[in-house]
Amino acid sequence: MRKRVLSGILASEETYLSHLEALLLPMKPLKAAATTSQPVLTVQQIETIFFKVPELYEIHKEFYDSLLPRVQQWSHHQCVGDLFQKQVSKSLLYKPVDRVTRSTLVLHDLLKHTPSSHPDYPLLQDALRISQNFLSSINEESTPRRQSMTVKKGENRQLLKDGFMVELVEGARKLRHVFLFTDLLLCAKLKKQIGGKSQQYDSKWYIPLSDLTFQTAEESEPLPIPQAPDEELDAIKIKISSLRSEIQRERRANKGSKVMERLKKKLSEQELLLLLNSPNMPLRVHNRSGKSYIFLISSDYERAEWKEVIREQQKKCFKTFSLTSMELQMLTNSCLKLQTVHQLPLTVNKEEDESTGLYGFLNVIVHSASGLKQSLNLYCTLEVDSFGIFVNKAKTRVYRYTTEPKWNEEFEIELEGSQTLRLLCYEKSYNKAKMNKEDGESTDRIMGKGQIALDPPMLQGKDWQRTVIPMNGIEVKISMKFTSREFSLKRMSSRKPMGVFGVNISSVTKRERSKVPYIVRQCLEEIERRGMEEVGIYRVSGVATDIQALKTAFDTNNKDVSVMMSEMDVNAIAGTLKLYFRELPEPLFTDELYPNFAGGIALSDSVAKESCMLNLLLSLPEPNLVTFLFLLDHLKRVAEKESVNKMSLHNLATVFGPTLLRPAEKDSKIPTNPTQPITMGDSWSLEVMSQVQVLLYFLQLETIPTPDSKRQSILFSTEV
Length: 720
Hints:
With about 725 residues, the protein is an alpha+beta fold. This is BCR activator of RhoGEF and GTPase.
C-alpha cells in the first residue's frame, strides 16, 4: 500500500484543506471557551459546517450521524474529545482507509488549535495516537521495522524479546509467536496466508507484566503434558533425513522446480511436526486477575532466558491496565514490523549454502569459572542441538563452596547436525526446605548461562580450541576438539593384544574363560547397584578422564578396578561400557551380518520380519550372542525405571544401536581438502536410524526364543 505521509496529503489535497478550513473557522473561539464549561461547538454550528461542505459530510456521514444525537444530549461534563474517542474505539472512522487518513487530519488540526490546558486536549491527543498507530500498521511494505509503538501519554512500548513457542491449550499443542514488550506479554498466532495477502497475527491473549507471575507445578492445577512416543519422533526424524537427501539429489540433478517445491513442502511439514511435538519442559505463566497458561520449551536454557528478561522488566512495572479491543488490534498489527524472529528454524527458510551442522564427537573440557562474588556449590551442564531441539548432554561434578571452581573435567559429546553448544552454571542446593520445587521436580538455581557457535572452520584442526564463555558476570573457561564421525567411528584393532579394548570379543572371552567379558559384567553390576534411577543413564556423558582411567585399569587387569568403580560417578561407568562396545574391532552384530540386519528391519511383513531377524540373531557367534542377550536383559530392566531415569527403550536403542551395529570402516572418509568443513550428510543419519530400529526391535520383543543351551548358559553358568 502507498505510504501515506501527513505532509504529502496536505500538499496534494488542496480542495479538502479548503473544506477543512471552513470547519475550523467557527472554532476560533476555542481559546475563550477553554476556561468555560460550555460545549466547544453547538448543534447548529456542527450542522452548518457539515452541510455547508458536502464533500465533508459525504466522507464523515457515519461519524456525523452518530455524533449529532450525542451533541443534542450534551451535558456540561462532556467534551468533543469524548466523542472522537468513542468513534475511534468503534472503528467508525476506519472504513475505508481513506476516511482514516482524513479523520487523522481533522484530529491533527483540531489539536493544533486547542490549548493544552483545555479539557479536550488530552482526549484529542489520545484519539490522534490511536489513529496514527493504525495508519502505521498498514504501511508494512514501505516502512522499515520499528523498535517501539506509541502508547498513552506519549510513552513508548518497546519490544524486548520475541520467539516461537509451543503452547499447551486444552491438552493440544499449538504453535505461537510470543512477544515481550516493556509492559506486557502478548501471545499471538500467525494467520495462514490466503491469496498472496501479507502475513497477519491474531492475538490469543496478553498479560500486563505487573500482573504476571510464574507458577510452580504445586501451585497450579495438575495438568498432564501429552508427549509423543519416542518412536513417533524418531519416525519423523527418519522422514526428515530422507527428504533432505532426496532434495540434495534433485538439486544435483537440476530437476524441475515443481518437484523441489513438493519435496520442500513435505520437509517443512515434518520439521514443523517435530518442533511442535518435541518440547516437554513447561513454563507456567499466570495472570493474577485471570487464568494460567503453559508453554512447552525444549531446554532449561530457553526457559531461564525468558524468566530472566521478564523478571528484570517487572522491576519497572507497577501499574496494572487493560487494552481496548482497538488498542489490542493496533498492538497485534505492529508485531509484524517489530518482530525480530521472522521465521521458524526450518530448512526451507535457510540459505542453500548454510551449514547443516557437525556430525561426530565433540570433546569438551570444562576448566574453571571466575567472577563469582560469594562461595557457592557449583556445577555445569552442557546442551547441544539436534534437529533444531536442544538436549542436555553432560554434567560436571559439584565443586563445593568456592568462588573459583576448578572442574577440569572432559566430556565426549556426540553431535548430530549440531550448530550450537550451550553451557549453564547452577548453584546446588542441599537444603531441602529451601529447594525450589518447579514442574514437579527439585531444581537448582541458574547462576549463569552462555553459548558458542560450533563453527566448522574453527574446529577443523586436530588441536584443542580454548575459549571463554561469558555469562552474567561469570566467565567459564572451556576447551573443545572435534572429531568427525567418519574418523571417530572407525573401528581399529588394539596394539595391546592382552588388553580388552579394541580386542575381538571371542579372544577376550576365551582368555578369561567366560561367556561374557569381565568388563561388561562389572559395569552392568555396578550400574544395576546404584545407577538404575540415575536420570539420563547412558545418555548423559561421563567425565572423559574417569572413563580413560577405567579403560586403562581394565586393559592392564588392575586388581583395584572394582574399588575405582565404586568411587566414580555412575555416568563414567556407563561411558566406559559404551566405549568398550564402540572400540570393538568388529561390531557385536558382525560386519558380515550387518547388511542382512539392515535389510530385515526394512521388511513390511511382520511375520517375515520376525523370522528373518531371529534367524540372523541366532547366527551370531556364541560370545557375541550371549553378550548381547546379557546386555539386552539389563537394558530392559533400565527401561522399567523409565518414570524415574527418563530412559525409554527407544532412548536406549538410540544410544546403543550405532555402538552395537555400526560396521568397521575400511577407509577413512575425511575430506582430502582440509579447508572444507567436516560435516556429514543426511544419508548417514538414515543409516544410524536403521541401526537404532534394529536394536529397538529386539528390545521390544517380550522373549527371544534361543536354543536352550545358550539361554541356560546365560542364566545359570557361574562363568558368565
